[in-house]
Amino acid sequence: MKANKLLNHTTSHLLGAAVEKLYPNVKLGFGPATDEGFYYDFEFESPLSDTELSKIEKLMKKLASRNLVMTQVSEDTYSFENKPYKKELYDELKAQGKEITFYSLIDPLSKEVIFTDLCAGGHVHDTKNIKNFKLLHLAGAYW
């Protein structure tokens, strides 16, 4: 995976972490890197406005400044509670006999796990170089 895609993929995890922290009842979808950047699908209890993007982006930058480390973790550290889309993907991968991996963003000083996600990998080691990004817009996703 190219360096930009690794950076963008890790940034999508920061987006997931920030949204989950700000909106604890959110249902996580999927968050890949793209050629242009990254995105993450979420199901919110009520629609977000464009003005809320700046709040999410601010928390992402705050999290990134902590130089969080991306670490592969064991499956038993992950809870599927309130994550039906992750559980559906997990069940599909398991039925197909595919490798299933989980990654966490971990604070290297406090060892606090900030965010854990079902993910195929391809990340930068830590968030120290994730500085220049902008959340541009909201879009609808339909399952």
- What profile does the largest beta sheet have? 3 strands, antiparallel
Strand order of the largest sheet: 3-4-5
> What is the second-level CATH architecture?
2-Layer Sandwich
Number of E-state strands? 5
Order of helices and strands: HEEHEHEE
Overall geometry: globular
CATH superfamily: Threonyl-trna Synthetase, Chain A, domain 2
What is the total number of structural domains?
Answer: 1
The assigned structural class equals: alpha+beta
How many DSSP helices?
A: 3
Radius of gyration over C-alpha positions, nearest whole angstrom: 14 Å
N- to C-terminal distance: 28 Å
CATH topology: Threonyl-tRNA Synthetase, Chain A, domain 2
Report the top-level CATH class. Answer: Alpha Beta
Give the overall pLDDT as a whole number. 92
Helix content range? 25-40%
Give the low-confidence spans: none
Work out the strand percent: 5-15%
Domain Threonyl/alanyl tRNA synthetase SAD: 114-136
Keywords: Ligase, Protein biosynthesis
Enzyme class: ligase
Organism: Mycoplasmopsis edwardii
Protein described:
- Residues 114-136 form the Threonyl/alanyl tRNA synthetase SAD domain.
- Keywords: Ligase, Protein biosynthesis.
- It is an enzyme of class 6 (ligase).
- This is Threonine--tRNA ligase.
- The chain has 3 helices and 5 strands, in the order αββαβαββ.
- The strands form 2 sheets. A 3-stranded antiparallel sheet has the order 3-4-5, with helices on one face. A two-stranded antiparallel sheet has the order 1-2.
- The protein is of the alpha+beta class.
